[in-house]
């Protein structure tokens, strides 16, 4: 099996798996005051400290949660709650049509409650203009939420420029940065973002562990309630093994980020060269985007059959976001870029990791040729 779905989930690294097993053997609840509990607490905080060091932020700015979806929901709904409590009425949210569903779904929930939504217009590659953002801001804008690197087409935003526009108007700025660690440079402080969300299974850590970055001096109310863990921002028994393993994995991923970027860039160029003459091939990603992602449209093919045939040929790929798998709907990201529903349904995403080899890329390219032939409508 050739695994080319790293944008959906990066397999746990050996170091992370070993760390997880060691930590999972501890019996204590990290909130307990006895020795076993404090041993668990020490490992949980070690994991948080490792992630803070890798991201170059204060550990106190990182709230541990279950992943990017929870973090995105928390920021959108939490900021809305804070606005409504302060002003007694719905406000205004600025976002984009190419966001992950974890931002779009709570945004639409707010719209049903009377909130005003503004969706910025992407260029042909899914980039957003600071000038358009400036024009979209209103006195009642409570939040701007724009991803850093798109999970389907790999487009990287100028987050620092966009966040600066929001900051100049006193508007909090959130970025879903789930796809960045271990591949793209990260500078939360330099970007000037108010909130950022991350998910450990994108960098080789365990599933079910994520981070919510909240810049110091910024308030965000909780949206779940319980025992007061994580400073009351996200209550629940701490996932000692998951957090510790996530910290080990992120340290490893960030240490190798430069080499990984170069490796992925070489793999992407190699793959594209091998399939460049496929009939009607459209490349949806931009060369300036994340080298982790390849997004292709093969007009006249059945996208579902294409993925099934690739799987039969031993290649794991996807149509787009794993969170939308099984919906039978065309990618909202690709349709936002102007593709027809038919072409969006004839598209696929392949994504590489540090462990992907040139030989795997060559075999995947040959498999795509065969799968495309089998999948013609």
Sum up the structure in keywords.
377 residues; alpha/beta; 7-stranded mixed beta sheet; 13 helices
Secondary-structure blueprint of this entry?
Layout (H helix, E strand, L loop, with lengths): L1 E2 L10 H11 L10 H21 L6 E4 L2 H20 L4 E4 L5 H12 L3 E4 L10 H7 L4 E5 L13 H10 L4 E4 L11 H4 L3 E5 L10 E5 L25 H16 L1 H19 L6 E2 L9 E5 L5 H10 L2 E2 L15 H5 L4 H5 L1 E5 L6 H17 L3
Parallel strand pairs: 1-11, 3-4, 3-5, 5-6, 6-7
Antiparallel strand pairs: 2-8, 7-8, 9-10, 10-12
Helix pairs in contact: 1-8, 2-8, 3-4, 5-6, 9-13, 10-13
Task: Put the structure in a nutshell.
The chain is α/β, with parallel strands linked by helices and 377 residues long. Helix content is 42%, strand content 12%.
- Quickly count the helices: 13
Beta-strand proportion: 5-15%
Helical residues, percent:
40-55%
Which regions contain 5 or more consecutive residues with pLDDT less than 50? none
**Distance between the first and last residues' Cα:** 26 Å
Coarse structural class: alpha/beta
Q: Give me the side-by-side strand order of the main sheet.
A: 2-8-7-6-5-3-4
Number of strands: 12
Shape: globular
Radius of gyration: 21 Å
- From N to C, what is the helix and strand string? EHHEHEHEHEHEHEEHHEEHEHHEH
Q: For the residues shown, what is the average pLDDT?
A: 96
What would you say this structure looks like, in words?
By secondary structure, this protein is of the alpha/beta class. It has 13 helices and twelve strands. A seven-stranded mixed beta sheet has the order 2-8-7-6-5-3-4, with helices on both faces. It has a three-stranded antiparallel beta sheet with strand order 9-10-12. Helix 2 (35-55) runs parallel beside helix 8 (240-255), helix 3 packs parallel to helix 4 (101-112) and helix 10 (303-312) crosses helix 13 (358-374). The relative contact order is 0.17.
């Amino acid at each position: 099996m050739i695994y080319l779905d790293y944008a959906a989930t990066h397999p746990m690294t050996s170091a992370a798996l070993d760390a997880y097993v060691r930590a999972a053997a501890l019996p204590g609840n990290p909130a307990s005051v006895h020795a076993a509990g404090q041993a668990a607490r020490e490992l949980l905080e070690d994991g948080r400290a490792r992630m803070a060091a890798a991201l170059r932020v204060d550990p106190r700015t990182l709230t541990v949660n279950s992943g990017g979806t929870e973090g995105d929901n928390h920021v959108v709904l939490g900021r809305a709650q804070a606005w409504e409590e302060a002003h007694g009425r719905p406000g205004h949210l600025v976002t984009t049509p190419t966001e992950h569903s974890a931002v779009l779904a709570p945004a639409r929930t707010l719209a049903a409650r009377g909130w005003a939504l503004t969706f910025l217009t992407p260029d042909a590659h899914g980039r957003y203009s600071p000038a358009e953002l400036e024009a979209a801001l209103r006195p009642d804008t409570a939040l701007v939420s724009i991803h850093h690197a798109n999970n389907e087409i790999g487009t990287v935003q100028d987050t620092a420029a966009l966040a600066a526009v929001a900051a100049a108007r006193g508007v909090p700025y959130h970025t879903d940065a789930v796809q960045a660690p271990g591949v793209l440079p990260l500078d939360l402080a330099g970007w000037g973002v108010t909130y950022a969300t991350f998910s450990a299974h994108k960098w080789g850590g365990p599933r079910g562990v994520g981070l919510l970055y909240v810049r110091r001096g910024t308030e965000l109310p909780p949206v779940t309630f319980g025992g007061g863990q994580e400073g009351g921002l996200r209550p629940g028994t701490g996932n000692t093994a998951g957090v510790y393993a996530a910290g080990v994995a992120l340290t490893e991923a960030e240490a190798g980020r430069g080499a990984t970027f170069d490796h992925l860039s070489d793999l992407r160029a190699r793959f594209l060269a091998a399939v460049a003459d496929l009939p009607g091939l459209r490349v949806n990603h931009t060369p300036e985007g994340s080298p982790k992602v390849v997004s292709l449209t093969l007009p006249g093919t059945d996208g579902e059959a294409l993925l099934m045939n690739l799987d039969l040929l031993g290649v794991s790929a996807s149509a787009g976001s794993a969170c939308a798998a099984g919906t039978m709907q065309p990618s909202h990201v690709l349709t936002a870029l102007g593709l027809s529903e038919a072409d969006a349904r004839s598209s696929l995403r392949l994504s590489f990791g540090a462990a992907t080899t040139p030989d795997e890329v060559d075999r995947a390219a040959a498999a795509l040729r065969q799968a495309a032939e089998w999948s013609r409508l």
